[in-house]
Structure formats: structure tokens, C-alpha cells
Known about the structure:
The protein is mostly helical. The protein has helices at 9-42, 46-58, 70-77, 81-93, 112-138, 141-160, 163-178, 184-205, 210-227, 230-255, and strands spanning 67-68, 97-100, 104-107. It folds into three domains: 1-42; 46-107, Arc Repressor Mutant, subunit A (Orthogonal Bundle), CATH 1.10.10; 112-255, GntR ligand-binding domain-like (Four Helix Bundle (Hemerythrin (Met), subunit A)). The protein is built from ten helices and three strands; from the N terminus they run H-H-E-H-H-E-E-H-H-H-H-H-H.
Amino acid sequence: MNSYCSTTPRECVSGIWRIQKSVDKYALILYTICQRIKNMNTLPTINSIYKELRQKIIDRSIPPGTKLSENLLSKEWNVSRTPVREVLRRLESEGLITSYPYKGAVVNTITIEDIDQLYTIRISLEGLAGRLATPAISGDSKKLKTLERLCREMKTFLKKGDIEAYVTKNNEFHSYIWHTCGNKWLIRILENLDSHVNRFIINALHVPHRIEKSMQEHWMIFEELKKGNAKGVEKSIGRNFKNASEDLKKELVRQI
């Protein structure tokens, strides 16, 4: 036996085995902690749930009149009911849903009164934004080409009968104009208003022949911008929303 080692080979092997067992134990603990951190990072946050559910209501993936169950929503996102309640509270504060005692939350329906009130605001504010944006757009060939491209893309989707894609380009067209107006407060108001009006736009474009009229109206807006006619832009935007609201109201009355 080696004079520098007082342990037997059996004791050495036993010691190594105990050390290996401890290493495995702590490795398992570390792995478990890492997995928990990973799961925490992949769990949806209140903001992510809010944005996704809000978008589904706006684009009518969840149609008006739908009951929103806290239990089903919490299972869908694999979270407790607490964050779901906070999300529903936010959506109700925006006027997208209404909570009823003992019944839960329901996605708000579209009424003629809603259309009148929201479109009245939209016509005034977006018309103003268009008038303010005209000098910046008409004198910039790059901006004009962007709007012309959006109009052509809308025309393509019109021919394909793809209303959802048409709506996306329609929104980009209007958003591009009012983001160029130079008034940050007006932009913020329109951004908030936009989500509510978008629920109506999709409905309106399903009205027979409305989408064809919409296409013509957007070309008119573009032509006025190209001419640098600020008043003409304001009137053309107002006409677009006025016609959309009237057609939508007629369709709602017809369905009653």
C-alpha cells in the first residue's frame, strides 16, 4: 500500500461514488431551477395577452356578442385568472367589452349610435390630419410613391376579393397620412380611435359594392395629395368615411 495514502482502494471508490452522487443531485437541482426560469420567461405577460385578445376583438376573430369566459381564457394562455381579469378590465375601459354581474364579459356589439358618434369624430380629426399632412406629402416624391403603392396593393386585393388584406392596406394608407401631419397629440388620439373604427371598417367593406367605392375614394384622396390641395384632401377623407358610415348603417338596418 502507498505510504502517502491511509485509505484502502475500497474506501477511495466509495468516496468517489459519494462525490458523484452529490454532483448529480446538485446538477438536477440546477437543471430544475433553469427549467423554471425558462418557463417563467415563456409564460405570456398581461400585456401580451391584452394585445392578442384586443386584436382578435378588433379584427372580429372574436365577433360582437361573444361571451369571454375567464376560465377558458386562463386555460388558453396557461395562466391564472388574475391576469385575465386585469386584461378584461383594460378592454372594458376601452369600450370593447362589457362586464355583467353573474354573466361575465361580453364583446360589445356595433350600434348605429356607435357608428354615428365614432365616424363623426374620425371625419373631423382625420380630415384635419390630412390637411396638415398635405404640404409634407405633396412636396415629397418618396411619400407620394409610398401612398400610390398602397393604393395599387389595395386594388390588387380588391380584384382577389381578399377583404382582410384590403383592410390592412387601407389602414396603412390612412395611418401613413396622419403620421405625417406633424401634430403628436392628434396622432395619439387617432391611434386610440383607430382600433375602435377598424371594427366597423371590416363590416362596412362586406356591404355590397362598398369596397369598389372605397377604392375610388382612396384614389381621389391620393390625387388631391399629389396636387397639394389641402382642402381637397380634407374633403376627400371626410367623404370616404361619410360614405362608409352611411353604407354600414343601411346594412345594419337591413339586418334588423
